[in-house]
Write a structure and sequence with these properties.
Number of strands: 0
Helix content: over 70%
Order of helices and strands: HH
Radius of gyration: 15 Å
Strand content: under 5%
Shape: rod-shaped
Number of helices: 2
């Protein structure tokens, strides 16, 4: 695991919590912020996944 994967997963989790809090409090702004943070985290985690895949492929070559 690399730091992008860890940071991305953390952002995803924080975004999910924020999104849920927005739904509970009926705050569309907080809910939207949570969705955005979750999506940013997903993108960062996937970038980390891609880096790991390249690194693994380089080791096999």
């Amino acid at each position: 695991m690399n730091k992008d994967q860890v940071k991305g997963a953390t952002k995803e989790a924080k975004g999910s919590v924020k999104e849920a809090a927005g739904k509970i409090t009926d705050s569309k702004q907080t809910e939207l912020e949570g969705k955005v943070e979750k999506n940013v985290g997903t993108a960062q985690r996937k970038a980390g996944d891609a880096k790991e895949a390249v690194k693994d492929a380089a080791k096999r070559a």
